Amino acid sequence: MYQYALLIEYHGGGFVGWQWQQDGVSVQGALEDAASKLAQNEAPTAVAAGRTDAGVHAEAQAVMLELDRNLPPGKLRDALNFHLRPHLISVRAAMIAPDDWHPRFSATGRAYRYRILNRPAPPAMDAGLVWHLHHELDADAMHQAAQVLVGQHDFTSFRASSCQAKSPVKTLSRLDVMRIADEIVIRAEAPSFLHHQVRNLVGTLKLVGEGKWNAQRVADALAARDRAAAGPTAPPEGLALVSVTYDPPINWDFT
After folding, report:
1. pLDDT digits over 163-196, tens only?
2. Cα–Cα distance between 63 and 99 in angstroms, integer?
3. Crossing angle, helix 215-224 and helix 197-209, to 10 degrees?
4. Quick check: pTM over 0.90?
5. CA distance 160 to 195
6. Beta partners for 6?
7. 53 tagged catalytic
8. At how many degrees (to 10) do helices 139-146 and 215-224 cross?
9. pLDDT tens track for 91-118
10. pLDDT at site 254
11. What are phi and psi for residue 70, nearest 5 degrees?
C-alpha cells in the first residue's frame, strides 16, 4: 500500500461528520469511495487529523490515504476530485506521506474558527456556514471572558458526555473573539480538543455577549468541572477546522 498525505476542504452540511457511519454519508466514506475507483485490488483507507461532527466544516483537514497504486500526487488529486463529485469535498493538495507521519498523532496543533452572524437579517450567501443571532452581542466582553479559559485546565464543564478522551485536561493556547462588521469571529487553538469543546465554549461565551454572564461566571463554570455548570452547545454550522500544524511543517504543493 502507498501512503499519501492529502489536504482537503469540505462543507459539512449534509454529512454525518468525518467518520464513517452506517446511516448517512460521511466525509471519510465519500473520500474512500472516490479512492476505490482508483484502487487495483485492496480497499483504500483514509485517516484524518480530527473527526469533525455532523455539520462542521473544514478548510484544511489533513488526511492520510492508503492506496494500492502508485500515482503522481497531482494526478491523484485531480482524479479524486473528479470522483468526489457532486459531494462538496475538494482535495486541495496531495503528496507522498512523510516517513512515520500520522495525521492525528503527529499533529502539534489545531485551530478552529467559529462564525456568528450578528444582525437582524438572516444569512443568504453564508447560509449553513454561520450561527445567526439577531440580538447584538458584546464581542469585547466575550473576548475578556474567554481569556480565563486560556491555559491548561480541566475542561470537564465544556466536554460532551460522549467524549472518549482519557483525560479532560487540555491546554487552550488561544481563544480570541473579535467583531468584523456584523460578524463575530471566535478562534480557538490548542494541541488537541475534547469532543464538542469549542462549541460548548462558544455557547457559554454567547451568554456573556448577551449580558447574562460575566467573566467570573465563566471562571466558576470552568472550576465546577460539571457540564451542567456551563452554557449550551453552539450549533455545528458556524464551526470550521482551519488548520492543523506539524513539526516539521508540511509544505503542501498547490500547483
Report:
1. 878 899 999 999 999 999 999 999 999 999 999 9
2. 14
3. 150
4. yes
5. 6
6. 63, 94
7. yes
8. 40
9. 999 999 998 999 999 999 999 999 999 9
10. 84
11. -90, 110
Give the cell for residue 187.
478562534
Catalytic-labelled residue, pool 23, 53, 100, 220: 53
DSSP string of the chain? -EEEEEEEEE--TTSSBSS--SSS--HHHHHHHHHHTT-SSSPPEEEESS-PBTT-EEEEEEEEEEESS---HHHHHHHHHHHHTTSSEEEEEEEEPPTT--TTTTEEEEEEEEEEE-SSSPPSTTTTTSEE--S---HHHHHHHHGGG-EEEE-GGGS-TT---S--EEEE-EEEEEEETTEEEEEEEES---TTHHHHHHHHHHHHHTTS--HHHHHHHHHHT-GGGS-PPPPGGGEEEEEEEESSPP-----
- Of all residues in the chain, the percent with pLDDT exceeding 90 is 93
